[in-house]
Amino acid sequence: MTICMASVEDVRVEVKQARDRGRTIGLVPTMGALHAGHVSLIREARERTGFVVVSIFVNPTQFGPNEDLNRYPRPFEKDFQICREEGADLVFAPSADTMYPAHFQSFVQVERMQQYLEGASRPGHFKGVATVVLKLFNIIRPDTAFFGQKDAQQARLIQQMVRDLNLPVGLQICPTVRELDGLALSSRNQYLDAEQRRNAPILYKALQEAEQLILKGERSTAEIEKHITARIASTPGAVLDYVAAVDSDRFEPIQRIEGDVIIALAVRFGRTRLIDNVLVSSATLKSLPNHLLPAG
Ligand code: AMP
What we know:
The protein is of the alpha/beta class. The chain is built from ten helices and twelve strands.
């Protein structure tokens, strides 16, 4: 049975009971509008932990003033149905007032890592992400929390926060789930019109081409970025926000491709902003896996 709760106190009682029954606790934090990417996280959590909590919360503090907070999809009934079908034990769906009551004023920041890529493009975004994830960890106290490689910088930033603040939680990063044409699943894909949707696979195509260049021996970050920039520029309706190669550990921009590298980009189609990344291990000349899905 899947139960849904909106209050911090109720969730704490329920999770404690599960723990007293000897279950380990898994947490899958989401903003809802669930798709197969989220489902892969829930399934992983079911395999690895005994009591799975899915949080559904469109976190206002991670949206900038001109971003899509108000139009972000909130199909709660459908989301709950998915959680039930996937065997989640508890859906935690707090209100904004529950998470940020009047006079709320405490935030956490991962200072260096939050400056680059998504952080540079969306000022304040990672302050909101780190704060809400820390709150969720404190409310639920999971043994393991599950995040997607799709948001690689976010996953790495949370890992840094866990290390820096000695948080007693394990992290599991799950591969990016994609449509068959390579487009990474995202709740924001539903904003795309038919033509934008046809062109959106260019993000992953350009990344795969970059990966090929690296595997063939290209080591100049500037050349890799130049290739991706040109591919996006020649795609109708696509506007590059950023492309960057970063060290997969420190998540800081690099000049030369060495060791494990993440190539990440953000592209706008009209008002819709999509992100994607690949992790390339230039040392072993391997790229790491993605899950491909039938479209639908
Ligand atoms: P969101 O609801 O977009 O905040 O995402 C919630 C979690 O799902 C995050 O850890 C994301 O990285 C993960 N996620 C989103 N899209 C995908 C995807 N296509 N494949 C795997 N994980 C994903």
